[in-house]
Here is the input.
Amino acid sequence: MSASAIVLEELRQRLGESTKDLKLNISTVLSTSSLAEADRFTVAICSAYFLKSATLVKSLVAEAGDRISSQHIEDAKAAAAIMAMNTVYYRFRHMVGNEAYSQLRAGLRMQRISKPDTSKATFELCSIACAALAGCEACVQSHEASLIKENVREEQIHDAVRIAAVVSGFQTALFAEEL
Here is the structure.
C-alpha cells in the first residue's frame, strides 16, 4: 500500500461495525465505475469540499496522488463553491413557487462553469454531484441536461451521484465516530 493510501485507509479504520457499509462503499466507488479514474476522484473531492470536510478532502487528494492533476483539484474546489451558491439560490426560486422570482435576473457570476481547467464534462459531473447533495431539483435537471449535451452517458451521471452519496455517508459516519 502506498503512503498516500494510508490516509484514506486510516479514515476507513475509524469506522465501526455499524458503518461498515460505508467503509466498503468508499473503496468501491473510487475503484470501480463507468467514470474515468480522474473523474471519480475529482467528483469525490468536489463532494468533500461541498460538505466542508477538510479531513476528507485532504485524504482523497492524497489517495488520488498523481492520478489527478492540480487542475482537477482546482475545478473540484471551484465547482463546490459555485454550487454552494447556486443550490441555495435556485432551490429558493423553486421552493417559493412564485414565478416573479424566476423573472428576476440572478446576477450570479459563474464563468468557471463554461471555462473549466479540465473539461466541461468533468466540471458538470462535479456540479451534478453537488446539486444532488443539496437536493436542488432545478440544479440537478439543469446539469443533467448539460451532461447529456456533452455526450456523457446516463450510467456515468448515475455513478457521479453514487460517488457523492457515498462521500456524504462516509463523512456522516466519520462524524458519528468523533462523538
In short: The chain has nine helices and no strands.
